[in-house]
Amino acid sequence: MAKFMLSRRRFLTAATIAGSGLALSGCDVFDALGDRDSTVRSVIESANDLTYKAQRLVLGREALAREYPKSEIRQPQRPNGSTDPDDPYYRSLVASNFADYRFEIGGLVEKPLSFSLDELRNMPSRTQITRHDCVEGWSCIAEWTGVQLSRLLDQAKVKPEARYVVFKCLDTIEESASGGIKYYESIDMIDARHPQTIMAYGLNGKPLPVANGAPLRCRVERQLGYKMAKYVKSIELTDSLAQFGQGHGGYWEDNGYDWYAGI
Ligand SMILES: Nc1nc2c(c(=O)[nH]1)N[C@H]1C(S)=C(S)[C@@H](COP(=O)(O)O)O[C@H]1N2
Ligand SMILES: [Mo]
Question: In angstroms, rounded to a whole number, what is the distance separating the alpha carbons of residues 261 and 139?
Answer without folding.
Answer: 15
